[in-house]
Amino acid sequence: MAEVPIGGDFFGNPYLAKQFAQLQRVYTERLLAGIKAWKEISYQVIDPEKALKYCPEEYDRIEDAAALSKRFVEFMDG
After folding, report:
1. What are the boundaries of each domain within the chain?
2. String of b and e for 8-18 (b: at least 16 CB within 10 Å)?
């Protein structure tokens, strides 16, 4: 353990970062008793004009969010 770097030094090493990712995939599911874990992803729009190309103003986000939530719950219910 004394040779394992701390913090950024650890994840700055590609070999150690890859080993960590592999171990995390194996053990996360096992430690959580088969429950899958998701990471939260966030983003920030830096050019609103270009963003409109992908999400026009008339797009109903609330309706799609509700439909996606419904599909997720149906999937989880089996």
Report:
1. 8-77
2. eeeeeeeeeee
